Hints:
This protein is an alpha+beta fold. It has 16 helices and 10 strands. Among the domains are: 1-80, no CATH class; 239-328, no CATH class. Helix content is 57%, strand content 12%. The strands form 3 sheets. Strands 1-2-5-4-3 form a 5-stranded mixed sheet. A 3-stranded antiparallel sheet has the order 8-10-9. The protein has a two-stranded antiparallel ribbon with strand order 6-7. It is globular, with a radius of gyration of 21 Å.
Amino acid sequence: MPTGDKQKHKHLASLSRLMFKGYSAGFESPTEDLRPVYPELECISALNENELAEFVHVADLHHVTVRALQVVEKAAACLENQSLRHWCEPLLASERQRIARAIDALAPICDALDATGCKVTVIKSLDHWPDLGSDLDLYTTGNAETVSRVMCGEFKAKMEPRSWGDRLANKWNFSLPNLPELIEIHVGYLGQAGEHKAMARRVVERSVTKDLNGHKFRVPAPEERIVISTLQRIYRHFYFRLCDMTDFASLLQSGAVNFSELRRAADIGGIWAGVATFLLLVEKYAAEYGGSVDIPDHVVASAYSRDVRVHPRGDFLRVPMLPAASLYGTQLLNASRHRDLRAMCRLPLLPPLAVTALLAYRLTGSDKGVW
């Protein structure tokens, strides 16, 4: 393993312990007793300037910067470690300011789309709160022409070039003046091939309200949150971020998930085995780093294997390819069994697209234009 990867994985393990040992159930605020994370503070205190910058970079990649540094800051105060506390304060202030600007920019976009009849739900992006990802994802039941007119006309947005994967998934990316985060809008469909229509309708029909920074957003119900992230992590990217582990550990700990409803949603797209595998991976990762998540036995029984785990490789937590390929095959078989012509036509395009993306990445260092 390259030395750089070893250091990244060391930082990721430290961040994982900060998250699962530094918070009680719900991940709302650091736990009162932070003694379990004191060894992490000793390690962080020993890092040089470049290593600290890399630590924060890994936290950013995994969308846990605010939550992780909140724990470090509070524990540093308990230990009277002023240098570490002063290191955290400007980083937290800067990240919170970025997030507040993004939320303030997102609210009028949602309102404007809703006003034109494009019902909109914020997907994925707000799952990480009080953190926020590097782009802002929306799903709408509207049409692409209206979405483009609103974004480019009312908000002076620029439509970004679309990759093959974007076209297949029926999504568009927009950049706004003075907003570093892209607005990614999925129109009418979900899934890596844009194969899910009925499942996508549920995202809007069952959406709930979330209040953030004085704004009201429509977000997916817990069951659709799990389905959307399963599609992204198990059926498209084949990797997890640390935020996925913490976000869904928190959701499961809250008792908000209706597993009968979750199965109903997953069965529409033939991805119940993938959903069960997703949840099992969360449970296992949480346990490895000091957290506790329980999922029902019947869910565990539906997973690809009780022994499946993610492994750190490169920047992320990788899903083994054998389970991913098997679950993709099950999804395709289900589409054939139910004569889902859209899925049957689109899903077979994914393997050659994935191979093309891999070749492009190895040749140029980027898969831009493919995925």
